[in-house]
Automatic annotation (TrEMBL):
Domain of life: Bacteria
Swiss-Prot/TrEMBL keywords: Membrane, Transmembrane, Transmembrane helix
Annotated organism of origin: Streptomyces lannensis
Protein name, per record: Phosphatase PAP2 family protein
Membrane-spanning segments: 12-32, 39-57, 69-86, 158-178, 198-221, 279-300, 331-349, 361-379
Location of the Inositolphosphotransferase Aur1/Ipt1 domain: 149-315
Subcellular location: Membrane
Domain named DUF5933: residues: 1-119
Record carries keyword Lipoprotein: no
Length: 402
């Protein structure tokens, strides 16, 4: 199978898998450019795409997979890399290459994630869905509940959630573009921004997939699992509380549930919009809520995955914020606390699922409390890192006039 870099280079010519992502990456790269050059880059990309579309139409080439546009955006990104090497020098060259690298990393990260999904399906023949589904009784089986709610909204509600779920990377670029809006004038990147966390989550998340393979309720207990599913139970009939076992599954479905990386990414977007304007804060909240509705409502994740995803996101964010701030005792404690809670969640799902299902009023609040402790610790610690505002200067007293 071609790897992510090979796939990315093929999209110089072939129809890209996601044209929206390529244009979002182009927008991210242009944060290092002044406004006039941004418009020139966008116009050039659109013009190249028009040529590609006309050539395919004249040659009767039908695009059956991916998008008919996006090649132009990749051409402009690569062209800026050549421009940086041949026509820029010193700091200007470094800044433009950083912008190009940021754009290419976003695309490569997405394709690397797709490659990892293939690896999980080919190398993890046994899955742990019975364990997670049993543990999920402690949370009230939220996937079954939200699945019925989404189904009741019909195709309109499901279609809207599907757009939110599928364009998460584009939403991240919009937030990152706001965070990096001053790069062109300041001629430097900030110490920490959304894209760093986004990429690290995608880098570390698949390793947990390999350790804790889970396919999701719509596959393990629903119609999408076909003959491999235990029964067609999702979302109408919750599973019974029985002793769970490892179960075999096909070699196609990704084992990409534990933790929910979509939840982790949406949580990161939520975190990074808290300091933006009101419209951006509302959008970040909406994207998080809609993503949670999609991950649960489509049967892609259990409630236990969501809890683990939130803890995973805050722990990664804490580590990167500590790196930007400078490691100190509070930073080490914050990351250690998040890592410990995340490990405890996985061990509980694996070795205590029956006890969790038998005592939901104990373990359900404990799960939420553990997740909340990580969020609270992050907020408390990072507030101490904020620069203290200088006290307002008091006007000096003026002597009275005689």
């Amino acid at each position: 199978m071609p790897g992510p870099i090979t796939q990315q280079m093929q999209e110089v010519i072939v129809p890209p898998k996601s044209g929206f992502l390529l244009y979002a990456s182009l927008a991210l790269m242009t944060v290092v450019l002044p406004l006039r050059q941004r418009l020139l880059a966008a116009g050039t990309a659109i013009g190249i795409d028009v040529v590609f579309i006309l050539v395919r139409w004249a040659a009767h080439i039908r695009v059956t997979q991916g998008h008919p546009f996006g090649n132009g955006a990749l051409w402009v990104i690569l062209g800026c890399a050549v421009l940086a090497v041949t026509r820029r020098a010193d700091q200007e060259r470094v800044l433009l290459l950083k912008g190009v690298g940021l754009a290419l990393l976003l695309v490569a990260g997405r394709k690397t994630g797709d490659t990892w999904l293939l690896i999980t399906s080919k190398t993890r023949s046994m899955v742990l869905d019975q364990y997670v589904a049993t543990a999920d009784h402690a949370l009230g089986n939220p996937s079954w509940l939200v699945g019925r709610m989404v189904r009741s909204t019909g195709p309109i509600g499901a279609g809207a959630l599907n757009i939110v779920y599928g364009q998460l990377a584009v939403a991240a670029v919009v937030v990152a573009f706001y965070q990096l809006r001053n790069v062109a004038t300041e001629r430097r990147f900030p110490d920490h921004h959304l894209v760093r966390t986004f990429l690290v989550i995608g880098l570390l998340g698949p390793s947990i997939y390999m350790l804790f393979p889970v396919v999701g309720p719509v596959f393990a207990f629903g119609a999408d699992g076909g003959n491999w599913a235990i029964a067609n139970l999702w979302p109408d009939t919750p599973t019974l509380v029985n002793a769970p076992h490892l179960m075999p599954f096909d070699g196609i479905t990704p084992r990409n549930c534990m933790p929910s990386l979509h939840t982790a990414w949406a949580t990161t977007i939520f975190i990074h919009t808290r300091r933006g304007p009101r419209a951006l804060r509302i959008a970040g909240t909406f994207w998080l809520v809609a993503t949670l509705g999609a991950t649960l409502g489509f049967g892609f994740h259990y409630g236990a995955d969501i809890v683990a995803g939130v803890v995973f996101a805050y722990t990664i964010e804490a580590g990167l914020r500590s790196l930007a701030h400078g490691w100190d005792r509070s930073g080490f404690q914050l990351v250690a606390h998040g890592t410990t809670v995340f490990a405890a969640l996985l061990l509980s799902y694996r070795y205590l699922p029956v006890q969790m299902a038998d005592h939901p009023w104990l373990f359900g609040p404990l799960l939420i409390l553990a997740m909340t402790s990580v969020v609270h610790g992050y907020l408390r610690t990072t507030r101490l890192w904020e620069p203290k505002a200088a006290p307002a200067r008091q006007p000096e007293p003026q002597p009275g006039l005689a």
